[in-house]
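User: As part of a screening pipeline, I want to sanity-check one entry by hand. Below is the sequence and the SMILES for nicotinamide-adenine-dinucleotide. Please return the complex as structure tokens so I can compare it with the automated output.
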Amino acid sequence: MTNEKVLVIGSCGQLGTELVESLRGIYGESHVISTDIRKNDSVIFETGPFETLDILDESKFKEILQKYKPTQVYHLAALLSATAEKNPEFGWKLNMDGLFNVLNAAKEGQSIKRVYWPSSIAAFGPNTPRIDTPQYGAMDPTTVYGISKYAGELYIQYYYNRWGVDTRSLRYPGLIGYKSEPGGGTTDYAVSIYHDALKTQHHNCFLEKDTVLPMLYMPDAIKATLEVMHAEASKIKMRMSYNLAGMSFSPEEIYNEIKTHIPDFTIEYNSDYRQQIANSWPAVIDDSNAREDWGWIPDFNLEDMTTDMLLNIRQLYSLGS
Ligand SMILES: NC(=O)c1ccc[n+]([C@@H]2O[C@H](COP(=O)([O-])OP(=O)(O)OC[C@H]3O[C@@H](n4cnc5c(N)ncnc54)[C@H](O)[C@@H]3O)[C@@H](O)[C@H]2O)c1
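Assistant: Here is the complex for your manual check:
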């Protein structure tokens, strides 16, 4: 029987829904407490404890900590890049104050032994090298989301150095999965393109055809998250956030890959405000630190991911193959 208790904050989103499932498989259903400001139709409500929590509500957060005494916290609640640009003030408040509530609880010697908090490629900016983006280099994010991620990286490192809080973090590229809706990011097109290919055979893309961005298939994102959290502390040499890569492609490349499965699929390009955000982000990430420190290797490339996404979305829609 495990002594670990895992609390997931912001668990009903694209990442949390799948992460909770995997964590419950590892630690047991009653040992993984899912929390979110909202409920949706996710299966996670039926498979273990759920508490409604606005992470900005510090007293409710403390009540939940008192009740469950978690040893690990995965803090996923955030306003994502495109959504935060519509409400920058609140984007900063949620992304930073939420993180401080978690870090302070860990620092104050509650039960928490380890904290996971994701960063993003949005922490980079237009002066970062776009190809083979290094772990360290120019970081000049242009969105409030990216600024909050970069500041968050510095703070988690500060809490580790100053108070020994065992913080771990990954700079996710765009995450692609079929189990839940994306949450308002600049890479969301790479999820909806698969749904459109099967539903209407037409996709209206909000980025230009040759905009190469780094992406990661959700099973790889879950694998990396669990690996970095389960690695021995001595292997975690990066206390800001690790560069992480899976694959890189443009809208035209993913479209051509889907077309090998669905020949009638068509696409049009009508870029919007998200193009400017994408232009400020890296295209290909150098993740050699993650590979060297804790053995990171992704399983999926564009071809494998496309086969798997189409298979699973077909099953979801019960369209047959
Ligand atoms: N999805 C991606 O492509 C991507 C890429 C890089 C980094 N990330 C990071 O990964 C994390 C999870 O992303 P996601 O894609 O699952 O996002 P999402 O938007 O799908 O999910 C976020 C969840 O947080 C919840 N939430 C919002 N405000 C809250 C609050 N005040 N208190 C508690 N919960 C609240 C939302 O209801 C939602 O369920 C975020 O920190 C995000 O910045 C995601």
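Points to compare against the pipeline: The two ends are 42 Å apart (CA to CA). The domain at 177-215+246-284+300-317 is CATH 3.90.25.10 (UDP-galactose 4-epimerase; domain 1).
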